[in-house]
């Protein structure tokens, strides 16, 4: 029983996979532990150096945003109760790692189907389109993303060499309307994210010139 029954429920960060054509949710991947930190980088899309003077203050489009985080996966608690967690006993955290790895691989059946049709000369091989990946960090941040970097550091193993503790490093690039357009589901979600950001900015208190030691400009 918790010591603080009225304490707020801790929400989890995670990833949601959505079918682009139907907008139906296909899978929710919640992180076992929320990362201690989240690094976000925004690269301004300006006109660049050497442009005309009239272009100096213009923005060509939304800033290119990238996100990196490190998440931990640990089967220790599950292994304390083996009768309740047979998968953890048999496979360790292999299933959790495999689920995350499917984010960066085409499905085997799609690869096989493309190979079969290519062998028959019926199609030109095109990259397989994956499900739309949404990174969710609270209701204020629901972002369409592409996984750009993915590394796993396995830190502990059971007697059968199944990993039982690991750190997963994820790098993501936020998909904006520059990438997918305004009518694409990802573009619509991005515009919602941008509008929410503007709404939050309006709630921030404004400073004054006196805060900066100035009386006028």
Overview of the molecule:
The chain is of the alpha+beta class and 217 residues long. It has one domain (14-45, 58-198). The protein has helices at residues 76-79, 86-91, 94-101, 108-119, 177-180, 185-202; strands at residues 14-18, 25-30, 38-43, 64-74, 132-136, 142-157, 163-174. Strands 2-1-5-6-7-4-3 form a seven-stranded antiparallel sheet. The longest helix is centred in the last third of the chain and has 18 residues, at 185-202. The termini are far apart. The model has no long low-confidence stretch (mean pLDDT 89).
Number of helices: 6
SS elements, strand count: 7
Distance between the termini: 60 Å
Main-sheet strand order equals 2-1-5-6-7-4-3
Brief sketch in words of this structure:
With 217 residues, the protein is an alpha+beta fold. Helix content is 24%, strand content 28%.
Write the layout of secondary structure elements.
Layout: E1 14-18, E2 25-30, E3 38-43, E4 64-74, H1 76-79, H2 86-91, H3 94-101, H4 108-119, E5 132-136, E6 142-157, E7 163-174, H5 177-180, H6 185-202
Antiparallel strand pairs: 1-2, 1-5, 3-4, 4-7, 5-6, 6-7
Keywords:
alpha+beta, globular, 7-stranded antiparallel sheet, 217 residues
């Amino acid at each position: 029983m918790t010591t603080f029954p009225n304490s707020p429920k801790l929400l989890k960060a995670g990833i949601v996979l959505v079918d682009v054509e139907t907008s139906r949710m296909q899978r929710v991947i919640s992180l076992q532990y929320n990362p201690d930190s989240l690094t976000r980088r925004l690269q301004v899309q300006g006109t660049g150096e050497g442009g005309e003077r009239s272009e100096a203050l213009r923005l060509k489009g939304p800033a290119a945003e990238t996100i990196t985080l490190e998440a931990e996966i640990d089967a220790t608690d599950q292994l304390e109760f083996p009768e309740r967690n047979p998968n953890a006993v048999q496979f360790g955290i292999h299933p959790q790692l495999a689920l995350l790895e499917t984010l960066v691989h085409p499905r085997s059946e799609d690869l096989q189907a493309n190979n079969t049709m290519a062998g028959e000369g019926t199609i030109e091989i095109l990259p397989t389109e994956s499900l739309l990946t949404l990174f969710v960090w609270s209701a204020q941040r629901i972002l369409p993303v592409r996984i750009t970097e993915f590394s796993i550091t396995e830190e502990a193993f059971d007697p059968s060499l199944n990993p039982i503790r690991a750190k997963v490093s994820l790098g993501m690039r936020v998909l904006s309307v520059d990438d997918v357009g305004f009518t694409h589901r990802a573009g619509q979600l991005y515009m919602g994210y941008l509008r929410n950001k503007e709404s939050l900015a309006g709630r921030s208190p404004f400073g004054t010139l006196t805060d900066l030691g100035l009386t006028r400009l």
